[in-house]
Model the fold of this input.
Amino acid sequence: MNDTLFNTDQEDLKAYYTQLEKKIVYHDHLYHGEDNPEISDAEYDLLRRELEELERKHPELKTEESPTQKVGARPSKGFTKITHAIPMLSLSNVFNEEELGEFLERIRRFLNLSPDKKIEIIAEPKIDGLSCSLRYEQGHLVQAATRGDGYVGEDITDNVKTIADIPHEIKGTIPDILEVRGEIYMRRDEFLALNKSLEDNDKPPFANPRNAAAGSIRQLDVEITKQRNLSFFGYALGETTESLGETQHDSRTQLKAWGFPQAEPSGLCSTLEDIMALYHDLETLRPDLPYEIDGVVYKINRLDWQERLGFVARAPRWATAHKFPAEKAVTILHDINIQVGRTGALTPVARLEPITVGGVVVSNATLHNANEIERKDVRIGDHVIIQRAGDVIPQVVEVVVEKRHTNASPFVFPQICPVCSSPAEREEGSVVFRCTGGMNCEAQAVERLKHFVSKGAFDIEGMGKKIVEQFWEKGLIKNPADIFTLEELHQDTLSSLEGWKELSLQNLFRAINDKRTIPFNRFIFGLGIRQVGDATAKRISSVYGDLETLQTEMEQAIDPDSDAFNELLNIDDIGPIVTHDLITFFNDQRNQGIVTQLNGHLTIQSYEAPIIGDSPLAGKTIVFTGSLEKMSRAEAKAKAESLGAKVSGSVSKKTDYVIAGTDSGSKAKKAQDLGVIILTESEWLEISY
Ligand code: IVH
Done:
């Protein structure tokens, strides 16, 4: 594979994305369906992370079939399917101390814990095997299932019963229903012996112990599984009718007492330093352990906190995996090019002598920004160390200074935009140089238009990046609103354009007209406001509900003492930078003009909260005001949304409930005036938990 990630051509980006998606599906199949992978785990992780990163940066590319939407591969034929009572999800990853710190900070924020409150973590080895759910009813092992796609797995009960580590019966005070989840794995010595015997019999050996374990458990002939001497570690619970204590540690102890082996060494830590020390200890121990591990898993020890933290997408918020680092390689840096993004950011890209890192050919790598080039003193012609670990986009880590040519001179970062020649400036506190050309910079204006029509935004069928460029060059579209006047103003010019026939034009106009009605979140996303991705756009749309409210609030928020400003800053995931970008965008006259023009062409659908079940909050619009004591706003909001409520930032006649914490001020007053029901924090807790 070759990485064309830095090709600005969006068409290529889509092709690249599709190729990546297909590749992951292919490797998923080899791994889960055939137990015969062609690439290492580290390589696979990188592919996945690259896809995730691409989707984060370009949500318009994401498809429903994306592997990021699934936990593993669909179950294969031959085994009965089992639907998990509680989905078997995956783990998020952290790759360094900083990301680990962020993981802990997110938890602190979510649970609204004060900075001095101890967060106890239990760390244990991440076993490189395959996960399995064991179901005990009245103490008897009644079912064992693979993870499958996380929701539906395969029935491997008979095979699992051959594993000596797994009790068939557990005694003592036991919950009526107990699901023990854990990892089936093969010890290194067993793996070596198995491969030797396979080779002696002219059979292909397994690539690693994990594949050997997976291949051995999915044998239709149970006798074969039995000869393979598999092992098991228990690490989590699925459905249970009673809890096993108050902490993860308690539940480990109980599981151990019932005979489920636990992965060691493990440890309780409550500081970043302690966790990192344990991580490094495990990294040192790794080669000497009798089984393979590929990282360390951190779990919040308190089970009540685990419960409150819950899940996001395909992973729990209360746990994460810290993988051991992946590969690095040395290559030559041929050139540094500057790319201009949609928001004017100038990104230096290293053009490299192609090299294979972790099975992938890398020819471009990011240099992030001017500071990084200076800090690492990267010069054209240097030998550089690149890595693909953690970050999906390959990075230049450092220069091999000993190999530098004497005539290599420091790189001079351009002070002007390479596309429009406007001065490039750095905002205070920012490391990024930006082109100051704004909409006058072709690169930015065209990129914004491309973004506007893209999948996650207006998704105008048939209006790809190439067409945007063509129309732009002909002067037919300068800003997004122009798209909606194409039919009225430019029919004749369009029909004389190369490649446009009557029918294709009619199709294009139909596709444009189809999008004259647009959900509010897509509209916001389409505006291409700096830092406002798909998720932030959704959040904004759920808080403000409609365009008018959003515009008014943003105009008021220009005053940092205003309620509107604080409201905005209080929104989960919206920090000071996004706040600044939103306010700047909506107070810029040129943008205001475009938004007004667009509004004239469109019907923007207000945000509708999803209706979930029969919760008393389903379909209700609620507003939180004042400070909550038992939880953060983020947690309260996530809870409310999970129960089907729409959380809004301002009180209106449409508000169903206002949850007033302490110091709730003007909003509670407004609610009172409007006759909206006001709940205290404890009343809220009662209906929501
Ligand atoms: S805890 C809700 N602990 O890693 C998920 N998982 O990459 C709780 N794994 O799906 C999982 N060792 O198959 C946990 N000590 C450990 C683990 C572990 C290996 C696997 C597990 C998980 C995968 C995620």
